[in-house]
Design goal:
heterodimer, A: about 260 residues, mainly alpha, B: about 325 residues, Rossmann fold, 6-stranded mixed sheet
């Protein structure tokens, strides 16, 4: 029943993001496939044109647009259910239902994670559809590989914001803290060269790749689309573990918190 | 202790600068209605929150229906229905959806009870909870609690916002459908008259300490005010004397049993016995917790404890 309640709390936001993805994809497909459009001349064209088309459509959709949508979805979905409990001061009611707080925590977290997976899957399937519409015959199962980096990056942001919501006992605060950290993380790669110059100077030869939720998505999609750069296994493991550490920390807080 | 619905031993709960519960030892038998009485801020809600696992005790321990509070919380919550003082629920859900949400948690849930009580309380089941009046919100809470098939009902100010007709109906339901089936009701309230209607036992708490725990029948049949006049009356230290206070030229003693013998003893010591009169729950409550009364007893345990200083001058 708590599954139903969490879904009910978050479904409006989930459907909103689903519609955003579908809307963006449909608009892009209409734009790309129109006669005289950027891909029109490639239809049935030489192999090099087809290859370029294969790369161009997913690069725009999966690598450039989708990461921002699903990251934002992760931010917004995180405080929907647990934040609602704090806003309406219903944790006392919830915690007097005969379920462990561990169960309630993981159920709540899992519903949001499943919704993010649904959004990512919709984006990948949308890319298939767009490719078929644009080229009439062009698709590849290789695109399915993009699900993992997109999901891991988005769910890491979701988990972090979920944790911050519980830490702050407030959905709005959790969301704003999450936005703050996400913005900082987006700019971190820009500082990487200077940071590593300093680090290398202080600690001979050592360099660090500063974390960014977007970079893991971009790197994964890059490998899937263009087979370049290598699949970011290490980053995926790091962000995958991070995604699980946050709900564990949330559980520890909830189990100890007085209501 | 497993024969008790609720048992606490020297329960203490402190917050920075405040001791909300101070060495509370409760013994609530099974199958009774227990009135848990006290002023605002006496520690009633904190005690209930500890029992339900919403707060952790600083010291002491508690069992509910034989299960250890805190350690076996899910087992306790499966058997316990709770009506909170705040009466907050999900505002966007309708009572029908709240029933749907709550039903899945309880194996002994009764849809028949939902139908019966929603009709009886005239609850608008299709309107969002946030749009309901205070009284209807309370009714929804009561509906959810009564439909759980719980062995123990913990009710924190259950009559809040209800009109007298519904309160009367609710008390009748508690007596017939809950206590009548051998289940236990633990009711915390300021409404002494309501509690007096149904309670078998009462516990009176003030400043986190239990002042009195007794059967209501014992209170009615044995508790007496003994009013005497006289000079230099001896200090009385007895388990039977719950309170002693001076009123002008008179001394008043709240005696828990053998009031006539106590009065006779005072008479032998030179006092003039003015009156030995029965008293109700309200009078006992006021006598024990009245703020300007400095001479109240400590944690008195099951019936009554010695009064540490008998005379207030």
């Amino acid at each position: 029943m708590y599954v139903w309640k969490c879904w009910r709390d978050s479904r409006t936001r989930f459907i909103f993001f689903l519609l955003v993805i579908l809307g963006v994809y449909v608009l892009f497909t209409i734009y790309a496939a129109r006669p005289g459009g950027p891909t029109g001349f490639l239809r049935g064209g030489p192999l090099s044109g087809v290859a370029h088309l294969w790369s161009w459509v997913p690069t725009v959709l999966l690598q450039s647009i989708t990461p921002f949508i699903v990251l934002f979805a992760g931010l917004v979905l995180a405080p929907s259910s647990i934040g609602q409990e704090y806003r309406e001061q219903t944790l006392g009611f919830l915690f007097t239902r005969p379920r462990s707080r561990r169960f309630l925590n993981w159920t709540c977290w899992s519903i949001g994670a499943c919704e993010i997976l649904g959004l990512v899957a919709a984006a990948v399937l949308g890319t298939f559809a767009a490719l078929i519409c644009v080229s009439r015959y062009l698709y590849t199962w290789r695109l399915l590989g993009a699900i993992l980096p997109l999901f891991v990056g988005a769910v890491a942001v979701y988990s972090m914001t979920y944790f911050l919501t519980v830490l702050a006992c407030n959905g709005e605060k959790g969301l704003s803290y999450g936005v703050g950290i996400l913005v900082v993380s987006l700019f971190l790669p820009l500082l990487e060269p200077d940071f590593n110059r300093l680090l290398s100077h202080l600690w001979h030869g050592h360099v660090l790749h500063l974390p960014s939720f977007l970079s893991v998505m971009w790197a994964g999609c890059e490998w899937v689309i263009n087979s370049t750069g290598g699949f970011p296994v290490g980053a995926l493991v790091f962000y995958g573990l991070l995604s699980l550490v946050f709900p564990v920390l949330t559980q520890l807080i909830l189990e100890r918190r007085e209501v | 202790m497993n024969d008790l619905a609720i048992w606490t031993e020297k329960l203490v709960k402190t917050y920075p600068g405040v001791t909300a519960v101070d060495g509370l030892s409760l013994n609530v038998p099974r199958g009774v209605a227990y009135g848990f009485l006290g002023r605002n801020g006496a520690g009633k809600t904190t005690t209930i929150r500890i029992l339900l696992g919403l707060a952790k005790p600083t010291e002491g321990r508690a069992t509910i229906l034989g299960f250890s509070a805190g350690r076996e919380q899910v087992a306790i919550l499966e058997r316990t229905a709770f009506v909170s003082e705040s009466k907050t629920l999900y505002g966007h859900l309708t009572p029908r959806e709240l029933v749907r949400f709550t039903r899945g948690f309880y194996p002994k849930w009764s849809d028949q009870a939902v139908a019966k009580y929603s009709r009886l309380f005239e609850i608008p089941m299709g309107r969002p909870f946030s749009k309901l009046s205070q009284g209807n919100r309370t009714k929804v809470y009561l509906l959810l609690a009564l439909s759980q098939g719980a062995d123990l009902l913990i009710l924190d100010e259950p009559g809040m916002g209800l009109d007298p007709v519904v309160v009367d109906e609710f008390l009748r339901i508690l007596v017939e459908d809950v206590i009548g089936e051998g289940r236990t009701v633990f009711i915390s309230s300021h409404q002494l008259a309501d509690v007096e209607q149904i309670a078998d036992w009462v516990g009176l708490i003030d400043h986190g300490r239990l002042l009195l725990e007794a059967r209501l029948d014992d209170i009615k049949s044995q508790f007496r005010w003994v009013t005497v006049a006289g000079n230099a009356l001896p200090q009385t230290k007895s388990p039977e004397v719950l309170l002693a206070a001076s009123e002008g030229n008179f001394y008043k003693y709240l005696v828990t049993k053998n009031a006539d013998a106590f009065a006779a003893e005072l008479g032998r010591q030179g006092a003039t016995v003015v009156e030995v009169s029965p008293l109700g729950l309200r009078e006992i409550f006021l006598a024990l917790v009245r703020k300007e009364e400095p001479c109240t007893s400590g944690n008195v345990g099951e019936i009554a404890a010695p009064v540490s200083s008998s005379f207030c001058s």
